[in-house]
Amino acid sequence: MAGNSIGQHFRVTTFGESHGLALGCIVDGCPPGLELTEADLQGDLDRRRPGTSRYTTQRREPDEVKILSGVFEGKTTGTSIGLLIENTDQRSKDYSDIKDKFRPGHADYTYHQKYGIRDYRGGGRSSARETAMRVAAGAVAKKYLRQEFGIEIRAYLAQMGDISIEKVDWAEIENNAFFCPDVDKVEQFDALIRDLKKQGDSIGAKIQVVATQVPVGLGEPVFDRLDADIAHALMSINAVKGVEIGDGFAVVQQKGSQHRDTLSPDGFGSNHAGGVLGGISTGQDIVANIALKPTSSITVPGDTITKAGEKTQLITKGRHDPCVGIRAVPIAEAMLAIVLMDHLLRHRGQNQNVTTETPKI
Amino acid sequence: MAGNSIGQHFRVTTFGESHGLALGCIVDGCPPGLELTEADLQGDLDRRRPGTSRYTTQRREPDEVKILSGVFEGKTTGTSIGLLIENTDQRSKDYSDIKDKFRPGHADYTYHQKYGIRDYRGGGRSSARETAMRVAAGAVAKKYLRQEFGIEIRAYLAQMGDISIEKVDWAEIENNAFFCPDVDKVEQFDALIRDLKKQGDSIGAKIQVVATQVPVGLGEPVFDRLDADIAHALMSINAVKGVEIGDGFAVVQQKGSQHRDTLSPDGFGSNHAGGVLGGISTGQDIVANIALKPTSSITVPGDTITKAGEKTQLITKGRHDPCVGIRAVPIAEAMLAIVLMDHLLRHRGQNQNVTTETPKI
Amino acid sequence: MAGNSIGQHFRVTTFGESHGLALGCIVDGCPPGLELTEADLQGDLDRRRPGTSRYTTQRREPDEVKILSGVFEGKTTGTSIGLLIENTDQRSKDYSDIKDKFRPGHADYTYHQKYGIRDYRGGGRSSARETAMRVAAGAVAKKYLRQEFGIEIRAYLAQMGDISIEKVDWAEIENNAFFCPDVDKVEQFDALIRDLKKQGDSIGAKIQVVATQVPVGLGEPVFDRLDADIAHALMSINAVKGVEIGDGFAVVQQKGSQHRDTLSPDGFGSNHAGGVLGGISTGQDIVANIALKPTSSITVPGDTITKAGEKTQLITKGRHDPCVGIRAVPIAEAMLAIVLMDHLLRHRGQNQNVTTETPKI
Amino acid sequence: MAGNSIGQHFRVTTFGESHGLALGCIVDGCPPGLELTEADLQGDLDRRRPGTSRYTTQRREPDEVKILSGVFEGKTTGTSIGLLIENTDQRSKDYSDIKDKFRPGHADYTYHQKYGIRDYRGGGRSSARETAMRVAAGAVAKKYLRQEFGIEIRAYLAQMGDISIEKVDWAEIENNAFFCPDVDKVEQFDALIRDLKKQGDSIGAKIQVVATQVPVGLGEPVFDRLDADIAHALMSINAVKGVEIGDGFAVVQQKGSQHRDTLSPDGFGSNHAGGVLGGISTGQDIVANIALKPTSSITVPGDTITKAGEKTQLITKGRHDPCVGIRAVPIAEAMLAIVLMDHLLRHRGQNQNVTTETPKI
After folding, report:
1. What is the largest CA-CA distance in chain A?
2. Which of B222, B245, B284, B287 to mutate to test the interface with A (most CBs of A within 10 A)?
3. Given Cys at both, which of A143, A209, D332, D353 links D209, Cβ 3.0 to 4.6 Å?
4. Which residue of B has its CA nearest to D10?
5. Angle at alpha carbon of residue A338, lines to A334 and A340, rounded to 5°
6. How far apart (Å, rounded) are the C-alpha atoms in residues D49 and D59?
7. Does the CB of D74 have a partner CB in chain A at under 8 Å?
8. B350 lies within 8 A of chain C by CB
């Protein structure tokens, strides 16, 4: 059943398998008049791309995106924008090992059960390769949000295994292969990854994504709340198992007198809420965390069954990240951008103006 | 903008303010032939209702639901089901204190900024009273899921403040006012609540919700994943700040060899995934956690501003739960039921059959 | 499956059967700040109501609407508006005759086949009584469109049987029971209806609905065109079998040089297009026609079958309009209002301004 | 705002301009296991293609479609199907004449007003070239409907100018360039077109589209009725100004005793309803008519204005059909197929079985 679209007013629909001919998407609802070229999208695609460092998978795809429609003389026309990335690295690999076995921890089993048929080449549609189009679509939203409202959306690696960052220096994030904002932790992350490679194992990660300069008033109670839609968008990223807004699970141990963000004529006194109250943006930074599971594509042998239901074992060979969470940084940014864009268009439809001058922390 | 609906195939749309004439909802898409009476809904409404114990708010509403349409001679007809609960406890209270002030930690400020107008009586639309209709609609879904597929959906209080349960005895949950499955913790919860009442403060909570006997194959990649839709539905509950599927944030510290659920001819070897792989149900239990913030309706004075932007202070008097999380138990069940129902109808539309005979842990 | 909603941004969802407890609807997405009372809705409800004249069915329902939510201190708050009409005329009628027979030309057979169960009392959900809620919801849209943009939406009876009007005097429409804008035809319509009553038969009708002062630019290519959405909304009215925009079926015989509406600095030279080009409003009047079939509720006996598949005959007794088309006048206005409202909010979300100063005929 | 999708359960989203790099679409929700190759789509694309005869525009495009995803080893996998047609005939034409003028009867003026920017090359997004992707997507639906349920969807030219067909011989339709089912009229159509070419003018057309073997029970009251969704889909085709179901506008002059389709144990006695009662399919043939306006792309000069608002005149040179209605035959089939497919999936989701054994005429 149709499930490959996100957003109602700014709607992104994607297609494409890991080892098919191409990946593509349609960005529907982008307002007219936005200057847009392939270069605007390529930057984030390159940040997401595998093979950019020794810490991520060595698959080499240029991931070169083409804009096929919706842009005329360098500007969006308000019509649907078609984007395409051809798969160039379809090396004729031997998939006989996973063709009839279900890799544990992967979507092999569920796709097989749901559809009765499964494109087993590299995970097919369930591969994280699909997220390339999210990043391309998100880059359209990011550009519009930045240009029209000064909204910036950035993410970073907050934790990998039991190593957590201790400070956030935004200027550092693009200086290392981990999107790590704490220069003092880079070496530890590096050591952890090298160690995992040796073990043939993988590790989970926590990413924080932040949007600044967000107008107050975005979000539609009671079901289409801004935070609910963010949770949906972030949980739809491959490998994500948890989403927090603001203080997240820490609130369980907080008292009301601690948690609530007081207000003064100068703005909010804190941002425990993560920029959303009652499902509507407060004008403060939107802050969300996501937890990404360790990839199951590891060389440690795992018990599983064949399509015929027989006991077997499996080793996932090939080019795989020991920490898929790292590459989720640009993906998380893209998903948050898509949600904010969607809500911004919804809100503007009703109210005619978008207020940004509000008390903030 | 329209935001009061959830679900595409089983769609619930609600209306109603805390102190308006009535709350109501329309349940659209319930299959025909389901036996349904008010009594089927009243049980969960009573579980959610305030005033049932000394631990929850003392507002006394019978919360008596009426079925206005969609049922004929005791069975659903396939047409839209109208549900109504009249507000009987609209005691003429003095709201002058909050009329022109924004309660910190509440949606007062964001509603005011978004809409320019605000029904300040008891929080209006942003009040948790709205969730009564979710529970009523969810009860329709619960009955269908149970009857047609044997699916059971149950939740419990897993943690309050720093007190966590240590065992889950499903039979205990309805025996205490906390929906606590660990009889040994009831007294501690009781003591904590009494202490908070004295302080005029409140506390957060963690709820776990579990669905059993879920068919394999529910969920539509890539955006309408089952886990993404669950995250959306649970995060849309008032006060929720975090959602986990399966191991949730614990995955950050897990290795792939630990996390992945192996398969054998007898089923899965574990359920770290929480019953969802690649956005599709595995046939195992669906397991989700939510974090609920401590209510901001406390008598500890809080700094805030008036509508005119002037500095002031506020005490929230009246009938309020020290732990709103407790009452979220039936609400979380209802939301999970609505999502599963929606996906079950979607899945069946495509595949004609719903498989339940699958290897499970 | 969920099918009782219309509109995405201004969304109306209805419930209720002909002889159930009540009819209701939720109007979701109405902007805040609109002054709204029951009186704003009652006028159109009274125009639609049966029993207002001897030409329409003698069922007597006050059709008194209550606003249950979404309005505070006389103004809309931006939250969902709950509307309710209680069914007071549920006279305990004998339905044994139609309980097990399918009335030819009615939805009895299709509802039975689709759902396997059918509320046979007065047609249940398939009764035109359902349209009362459309009229109530449409009245909200009409008020907003009029107040914010000066848009007026009016309909009239253009033809009944082979009697067509020959002139349109808007001032006459509310002066007669036929919504007839040609005072010279009223007597002929009257005679026709009296004749049909004697025969126990019924007749079809054509209604024209017109919106004036419509801003240019409403409508979203390529599928959500304004004219396509109007066609959807009007065809969803009970008994409608045809929809035309502008010249409609007359275009089949027109040449391009005749049909195209030329432009000059003073505006369009004609309005063959009916106010829509390429799916987008031109700023001219929106003009649409609908064809309504003669009701099948007649006393002329008709061949049919029983639920068991046996041959039988049926006479539909009771209170029925010989021309259901007449009462479609306020319904058509309501549906056009809902569509325009929806598109206006969509358009505004994207473009931030709504242009009304455009060349018009 | 997002408007380039149709369908909820079988959802088609398109992109592409007349003279852009490519046209494309995503077919989302096709059930798995359907054998599908490009050849299945190419047949209908060739029927729609311009340049196939001297009666239609001489633009020469191979319209070769590529399947980029969603099919594996010759079968659909249940994931989204990406389709692409590259534009090969982008001859560097001189558009200076229409760049700053609004062609009367075209969407130039409305696109300009709505978006403030316009791809003027060949009409850009408003060009009928966009319908190629509808035909490709519709071919997927047609194949599924035929294979799974034996549903056939066919259309023909029923009228052009004042020449109407007098008989329907389905075998003749593909034997002539007009999709004319009445061999005796072909010469008259031919003469009319030749005459119009000489005059530099164009003519309207009426198309009838019929679906046979349709299961009973498709359609969701009250707004998502089958006939309402058909009206939406058909009115969304370029140049369509009217839609009829069954007897359509003829019902205005019919009596109830004439119009209603009686039932007997052998089936319906007639099909005035066109296969839909109460918004639900009866199991009879679905019959719909559409009226297509004469194209405004003619060489008869027309008054218009420039972007600056100054009076001017325009002649539309180039390769244009004197009757765009002819090519609407495969497009109408495609749109009806998409709607039926969508409703079939919806219906099946709720009821688990699809009944086809019903009394029919």
Report:
1. 68
2. B222
3. D332
4. B350
5. 115
6. 9
7. no
8. no
Domains of chain C: total: 1
Q: Average pLDDT for residues C292-299, to the nearest whole number?
A: 93
Say if residues B340 and B234 touch (Cβ distance below 8 Å): no
Would you tell me which residues 120-149 of chain B have a C-beta closer than 8 angstroms to some C-beta of chain A?
A: 125-126, 130
Instruction: State how far the Cα of B103 lies from the Cα of B300, in Å rounded to an integer.
Output: 12
Whose structure tokens read 């790590």? A180
Mean pLDDT of A30-49: 94
- Whole-angstrom distance, CA of residue C161 vs CA of residue C189: 9
Which residue, among B349, B76, C118, C117, has the nearest Cα to D354 in the 3D structure?
A: B349
Question: Does the residue C359 lie in any domain?
Answer: no
Query: By C-alpha distance, which of C133, C64, C48 is closest to B69?
Result: C133
CATH number at residue C130: 3.60.150.10
Extract the annotated binding site of C: 48, 54, 125-127, 238-239, 278, 293-297, 319
Residue C356 lies in a domain: no
Six-digit token string for A73: 């003389």
Within-domain flag for D97: yes
Which SS3 state, helix, strand or coil, does residue B305 take? strand
Would you place residue C352 in the very low, low, confident or very high pLDDT band (cuts 50, 70, 90)?
A: low
Residues in chain C closer than 8 A to A350 (CB atoms): 9, 29, 31-32, 78, 345, 348-349
pLDDT of residue A320: 72
Please determine, for residue C1, whether its predicted confidence score (pLDDT) is greater than 90. no
pLDDT for B54 beyond 60: no
Tokens matching residue A141: 């939203």
Q: Residue C242 pLDDT > 80, yes or no?
A: yes
pLDDT of residue A122: 87
In a 13 Å sphere around the CA of C257, the CA atoms on its Cβ side amount to 10
The model's pLDDT over B231-280, given as tens digits with 9 standing for 90+, comes to 999 999 999 999 999 999 999 999 999 999 999 999 999 999 999 999 99
Q: Which range of residues forms the domain containing residue D340?
A: 5-351
Reference C15, options C140, C113, C107, C119; nearest CA is C119
Grade residue A49 by pLDDT with cuts at 50, 70 and 90: confident
Q: Would the CB atoms of C347 and D1 count as touching at under 8 Å?
A: yes
For residue D77, what is the nearest residue in chain A, using CA coordinates? Answer: A117
Interface residue of D345, D347, D356 to substitute, partner B, most B CBs within 10 Å: D345
Residue tagged 């978008």 (tokens): A354
Which residues of chain D are under the pLDDT cut of 70?
1, 50-61, 89-93, 318-319, 352-361
Q: What is the C-alpha radius of gyration for chain B, rounded to an integer number of angstroms?
A: 21
Please judge whether C104 and D294 are an interchain contact, meaning their C-beta atoms are less than 8 angstroms apart.
no
Q: Integer distance in angstroms from the first to the last C-alpha of chain C?
A: 44
End-to-end CA distance of chain B: 44
- Which residue from A5, A72, A81 is facing D119, i.e. has the nearest CB? A72
pTM of the model as a whole: 0.96
Does the CB of A14 have a partner CB in chain B at under 8 Å?
yes
Q: Residue C20: pLDDT above 80?
A: yes
Q: Provide the chain C residues 192-251 that lie in CB contact (below 8 A) with chain A.
A: 221
* B to C CB pairs, distance under 8 Å: 171
Other CB atoms within 10 A of residue C210 CB: 21
Whole-number Å distance between alpha carbons of C201 and C304:
17
Which residues in chain C are contacts of B112 at CB distance < 8 A?
A: none
**Chain B residues with CB inside 8 Å of C11's CB?**
2, 5
For residue A43, give the H/E element and its range. Answer: helix A38-48
Dist CA C201 CA C197 (whole Å): 6
In this predicted structure, what is the pLDDT of residue B18? Answer: 93
In a domain, C174, yes or no: yes
Name the token pair of B123: 């929080």
Residues A350, C354: Cα–Cα separation, whole Å: 12
Per-residue pLDDT averaged across B342-359, rounded?
75
